[in-house]
Amino acid sequence: xxxxxxxxxxxxxxxxxxxxxxxxxxxxxxxxxxxxxxxxxxxxxxxxxxxxxxxxxxxxxxxxxxxxxxxxxxxxxxxxxxxxxxxxxxxxxxxxxxxxxxxxxxxxxxxxxxxxxxxxxxxxxxxxxxxxxxxxxxxxxxxxxxxxxxxxxxxxxxxxxxxxxxxxxxxxxxxxxxxxxxxxxxxxxxxxxxxxxxxxxxxxxxxxxxxxxxxxxxxxxxxxxxxxxxxxxxxxxxxxxxxxxxxxxxxxxxxxxxxxxxxxxxxxxxxxxxxxxxxxxxxxxxxxxxxxxxxxxxxxxxxxxxxxxxxxxxxxx
Amino acid sequence: xxxxxxxxxxxxxxxxxxxxxxxxxxxxxxxxxxxxxxxxxxxxxxxxxxxxxxxxxxxxxxxxxxxxxxxxxxxxxxxxxxxxxxxxxxxxxxxxxxxxxxxxxxxxxxxxxxxxxxxxxxxxxxxxxxxxxxxxxxxxxxxxxxxxxxxxxxxxxxxxxxxxxxxxxxxxxxxxxxxxxxxxxxxxxxxxxxxxxxxxxxxxxxxxxxxxxxxxxxxxxxxxxxxxxxxxxxxxxxxxxxxxxxxxxxxxxxxxxxxxxxxxxxxxxxxxxxxxxxxxxxxxx
Lengths: 317, 285
Prior knowledge:
Order of helices and strands of chain A: EHEHHEHEHHEHEHEEEEHEEHEHEHH
Shape of chain A: globular
Helix content of chain A: 25-40%
Number of domains of chain B: 1
CATH topology of chain B: Rossmann fold
Shape of chain B: globular
CATH architecture of chain B: 3-Layer(aba) Sandwich
Strand order of the largest sheet of chain A: 3-2-4-5-7-6-12
Radius of gyration of chain A: 19 Å
Distance between the termini of chain A: 25 Å
Structural class of chain B: alpha/beta
CATH class of chain B: Alpha Beta
Order of helices and strands of chain B: HHHEHHEHEEEHHEHEH
Strand content of chain A: 15-25%
Largest sheet of chain A: 7 strands, mixed
Number of helices of chain B: 10
Strand order of the largest sheet of chain B: 1-2-3-7-6
Structural class of chain A: alpha/beta
Oligomer: heterodimer
Largest sheet of chain B: 5 strands, parallel
Number of helices of chain A: 13
Number of strands of chain B: 7
Largest interface: A-B, 32 and 37 residues
Number of domains of chain A: 2
């Protein structure tokens, strides 16, 4: 139920990754860490200190890092690579495509500072196209958890899955509202059942979707709220069931609308249950310097936009 | 199999296989494949301790990585001739539903291939990862990685070169097919490699040079490199070869980098190569 999801405190999703990496390193001695000169930013210090022999400093050489990870995976290790999302995808797309995805290597590509919430560093670093690139690769699993707890759980869970994974998280302190513990790859979390509108969100915008849902419910609108942490493979069952209940859908993500979660959901619905849909995300633009909340507001990826789109999509039914 | 003469006879059959694969597929890369036939034969029939029952992790084995994947015909021939898969399968090279893709891949499960290659510059990084894993797992076997000379124009190679030296990957032996040619012409005309020996040395590697089309010299150099592992320094062998060696109308020309010989040219080439191990059959049409 919606009332179960209350923000307790603020912690970053990258901190969730760091905590998860340490824990999965303790559980599984095949796990190794690689980082391209961003150990502090990726919160990989704890793993490095606990397992120095299983940690590899790669320097500012991301292409090599992806190849070395593929080699480590060939030998049976479970490599977790760490750098910013920008340098985890666009910079090394061909290396991931050939040496990891096509070669089916068990590499976990862990990408921090995704999206505009990276903030002041500006558009050079604010990648908004990474999910699109990664979801197009055959065999690639794409996960974009929404808070500290979910990121930590995802980081631990992916070690038990044999195959390449893109795990996307971010920089800022962010409300922690999900329960600790279990994470099922590809299985959406149905956070609230409703009949008027479906809100399907991923990553940081999941919290804004919770806020929007609370507002709508207080106005008497019944919201079906889906937490879609795994963008690929997409939980088609959960999404189609939600659309069947409500007859209209809003997607929300901190990513380009073109090529992100919204595109995947729209394709699914178009083929199976065409219904009105609205998209919250970056509208074919680069970001800029600023504070995370300012940027999310300026580029229409905030609670107010989700509310407006939800009202608009219900009117189209 | 160990004598130099025996190895040369294998290499001769491998060269026949290369010509026949590329001709039958009407596509492929004969030039670099022919130039490297001696190297592949030396590695798989003499130098490397390897298991043709094939385990992906290569635990307890010497392992080979091909970075310049376009010379797949020589790789496939040597894998088949050394027992990884039936030689008859060479007839499927580049055909629909084959495990022998234009460039080597793991996707179809071809035994002997551990990584896809073709997009250049990536193999040495993968070999570094395997070398790193062998150290982690206290496996003292060696890793060989072949690169093309033109491929050294890719920046990722030098990231890997730096990484291997910094991390003392002394179980890693790089090999450069230094034939001086690439698709558009001579290396020196396209993008000069400059002082290649000096470059590797400055990056912290031990460098040796060898005539890659002299089996005796090649075997000696490879065995010596293997015996020099464990010294804290990665090694590279700059291997002088002739593209197209030894086919008289192909040798030394970049024009045969990626062109298939026609019927007449194939007959001419095969007439220059003794059938030492029996040709694999072409399927009935």
